[in-house]
Amino acid sequence: MRPLARLGHDERGAIAVQFALLLIPIAILTFGLIDLSRTSVQKRQLQDALDAATLMAARSTATTDAALDTVGDAALATEMAGLGVALGPSNSTFALGPNNTVVGTVQNVTIKPIIANLWSTGDKTITAGSTVMRSVNKLEVALVLDNTGSMGSTLNSGTKKIDALITASKSLVDVLAAAAARASETDAVKISVVPFSMTVNVGSTYQSQTAWLSGKMPATGYGTDVFATNQNRFTLLSNLGLTWAGCVESRPAPYDVTDDAPSSSTPASMFVPFFAPDEPDDNTVGVNQSSTTRYRDARTQNTSYPIENNWLPDGVSPSGTSATAWTSRSTPIAKYGTSNKNNVLSVAKSGTDYGPNAGCGLTSVMRLTNVRTTTQRDLVKAKLGQMIADGNTNVAMGLAWGWHTLSKNAPFADGVDPTTSAGKKTTKVIVLLTDGDNTNDVVNNPNKSIYTGYGYIGQGRLKNASGVALTTSSTATDRRDAIDSREKLLCQNAKDKGVVIYAIGVGVSDHSKGILQQCATKLDMYYDVTSADQLTSVFNTIAGSIQNLRITK
């Protein structure tokens, strides 16, 4: 009996028996985990595919649920190919959602388990959802483009910079117009065009807009008038049988760096039409009452003492001290009377090299234009195609008018009010391009400058960074730095009000590059162009950056 008792107490091999008994549940658990992992992987793959398909549907031109569903189903089928998941059109829907979204949904997608079917006949079903915001932020884009004379030259290519700019800016319009066509809103993208040189041409059709345009230079803020008495520029033009070409002068500080609405109750905030006065005739004139100097008309002779814009006979005798003084020949009102109408220089009647419109040869501003349709898009591209290279550089004035086109304030008041619900969903953008330093040349005559958007330098309308008005004794560098200071203030003021700024320097100096980098909203939103052939690529990159289409959840 003792051997049998020992055998009863012998536990050797018990672990093997226990393992054999546990093997079946361990196997079931292991394969069950495989089922869970497989389901998780396929659900993640389904979600990725649905995100991509919903994004594709949102990027399409579809504006109805049925059209979105067609695009989304096709895209989803392509994304799911080869993933081993049975999926048909009945499993997915793509439709318009709230707040300008596209919503993609997949339901009742079957995943067949490997182990679970041993004790259950039910398949695993999974669902997924995706929401894509469709151009939530509307866009108001101002193209502020340098049209100065230097843009007529080439830069490391055989193409003139102005021609390359026309091609590149048209390409940007095409990209943004395509985005507008994809959006469900009918006004998703609006674009304005602001060519600039030493002034800006707003268009001669605005002559009657007395609410913001004053024919007379206001006595406050604008400095000393160039005429003996304050004159209505439109009246002088009419007297001489001439018309206003549409250019305006810069408002005086501080209104030159803000988008404040012009108001007759604040005269310095009003705009004034550009009017370049007649300079003395080509004969002996005096710098002052006691001396005489020989000046020559710049049209006929290149001398050290040029007369830049002689387009009317003086109508005064060359004898006598007052008659020989430079200012006495420039400012008399009688010379702008109807009696002198037939004596206006012919080139002043038909062009913008001489006359009251001298320097106003650039194309006019185009206000914000909806580019959803091809017709509207082509209107903007046609305006860009009209750009020419002429004049000196005043980036500050171009920027000011770019901001005016985006502003809710007069003179145009086309921009959406940023404080409204619509405004909070609108991104305002300036794309600024220039190829040179700001310029106000020193001329060796009593005016010491040509007539620009700041008038003559001696009028004291251009102020430096310290707020001090420049005089005729200022150097070219003083003037450049003063305009630079206005440009910097404009950039900062616009950015403070939410305007996004992209800046492009086309072969610019290190000096101007630094200012443009500071002007851009972020450093990587400045583009340094060293060849005209790079412009299209740069503009397309900016156009892609401007677009705003993203998965929100």
Quick structural summary:
Helices cover 33% and strands 16% of the residues.
CATH architecture of the largest domain: 3-Layer(aba) Sandwich
Low-confidence stretches: 316-322, 548-553
- Please identify the top-level CATH class of the largest domain: Alpha Beta
How does the overall form come out from the CA principal axes?
Answer: elongated
Describe the sheet with the most strands.
Answer: 6 strands, mixed
| Total count of strands | 16
Our count of domains comes out at 3
Structural class: alpha/beta
N-to-C order of helices and strands:
HHHEEEEHEEHEEEEEHHHEHHHEHEHEHE
- The amount of helix comes to 25-40%
- What CATH calls the topology of the largest domain is Rossmann fold
Characterize the quaternary organization of these chains. single chain
How far do the termini sit from each other?
Answer: 78 Å
CATH superfamily of the largest domain: von Willebrand factor, type A domain
The percentage of residues in β strands lies in 15-25%
Placed side by side, the strands forming the largest sheet appear as 12-5-4-13-14-15
